[in-house]
């Protein structure tokens, strides 16, 4: 029997994350492929969630677009960190992770054959999300040795069919954080071509000294055309809770709401209470979170660079990118398929996150959101294996 799967989803059947995690289990490798922390977030948030379950708050369907308490906290967070005036009533929608919010936004805005432009490499769910919406993805390679946005290439990728610009900064997988100047250039193109921007800011609190995150919706003329997406899983290190949200102008948010209510209908009630508390944590939580992660970044960057990798600066996210050519590998896929056997460590090749494999070929993504002892172990294994 031929596969019952609809043709447009066939190319999304396998994922590099599944392949590499399987390999990690098979050979007992340290898995620096998967991007989730190996320690939980603040204990007090876990307490809020368990107390809510115990006290019967949120155990039945919460309101479709999010608990009012959480929507208030999200609006207050956007004001506190970015000076944005978001309407907690009509300007916020809560969903089952940033993933569902992104999917809802794509399905709400993209029609048959509409083009979605994004920088390449891109986070793997974008490709499948655009296919689900029956859209067409258009990749614009991040350019130069530092993998930065190239505005001329972006401008020339826009056609009359372009509907959405899908942005992600801090950026997965590269670890770049777009500068104000880069964002201003992107904003100018979005305004000139009248595009809607979906801005995936899942890593908004994960940026390192000297590379502050700037939401593109704070730039002149951008709030009214931007859907800004946040992830409680990423901001509070509870990736299994799956609470995400979008903020923006009422017309865009109301379109996202229409689709989202027909996907998971609501997201877990008790976790929404916990996320509402998380967004109101003092500044010290957010600065310590960044400080803790930047120590891990430094540990892995320094170690990989000593081993001879070409390490690109990681300005944000859980990830850093290395060039594997100095180690004698032709490309990242070959490296990632070989190194678990050779050294017992797993990483993710950029080329699996690109339409044109040539774009990401030299690069590999490493996750450093792991305990220092785990990073140390990975480095020691690499040292022994590469010798
Ligand atoms: C993890 C991640 C998401 C998904 O976030 P969830 O809240 O877990 O659904 C979205 N975008 C990027 C870039 C991510 O890395």
Q: What's the total count of β strands?
A: 13
Shape: globular
Radius of gyration: 20 Å
Q: Point out poorly predicted stretches.
A: none
* Cofactors and ligands: pyridoxal-5'-phosphate
Class by alpha and beta content: alpha/beta
Number of helices: 15
Strand order of the largest sheet: 2-8-7-6-5-3-4
Q: What kind of sheet is the major sheet?
A: 7 strands, mixed
Order of helices and strands: HHEHHEHEHEHEHEEHEHHHEEHEEHEH
Strand residue percentage: 5-15%
Q: In which range does the helix fraction lie?
A: 40-55%
Walk me through this protein's architecture:
- This protein is an alpha/beta fold.
- Helices cover 43% and strands 14% of the residues.
- It is built from 15 helices and 13 strands.
- The protein has helices at 7-10, 16-27, 43-54, 68-82, 97-109, 125-132, 151-157, 180-192, 232-236, 250-260, 269-278, 283-306, 332-343, 357-360, 372-386; strands at 30-31, 92-95, 115-120, 136-141, 162-168, 196-200, 226-231, 244-247, 310-311, 319-323, 345-346, 348-349, 363-367.
- Strands 2-8-7-6-5-3-4 form a seven-stranded mixed sheet, with helices on both faces. A four-stranded antiparallel sheet has the order 9-10-13-12. A two-stranded parallel ribbon has the order 1-11.
- Helix 8 links the parallel strand 5 (162-168) and strand 6 (196-200).
- Helix 4 packs parallel to helix 11 (269-278) and helix 5 runs parallel beside helix 6.
- The radius of gyration is 20 Å and the shape is globular.
- It starts with 6 loop residues before the first helix and ends with a helix.
- 50% of the residues are buried.
